[in-house]
Amino acid sequence: MLAEPHRFQVPGYESAYGDNYGIFLIPHAKTGVKLRVIAQSGENSRDDLGHAYAWDHVSVSLPNRTPNWAEMAFIKSVFWFDEEAVMQLHIPTADHRNLHPNCLHLWKPLNERIPLPPGDMVA
What distance in Å separates the CA atoms of residue 50 and residue 30, rounded to the nearest whole number? Predict the structure, then answer.
């Protein structure tokens, strides 16, 4: 894993080398910031119909601003292959939870392929 050299230990959230979860402080060379990353894999949830889903999830934050597109794309490349689709979501307002004002998230369901729009709609 490209993030491995940047694994960071926080009391209560320790992880070992090779774990598929952990806390990382990853430098972004182009913007010169150290991105604070929490990674989880295999977290389970259920939708409104009771279907179970397992997720990869990465949260990315900075102390004084929200990560930009280039920084998020970089983190995507650290935790997933180029061929994989991951997503950022705008969930219903009623489901919003803001535990950190400068944090963005990337998700990937483990049991399903993310449907993609036609290429000309994302160009």
Answer: 43
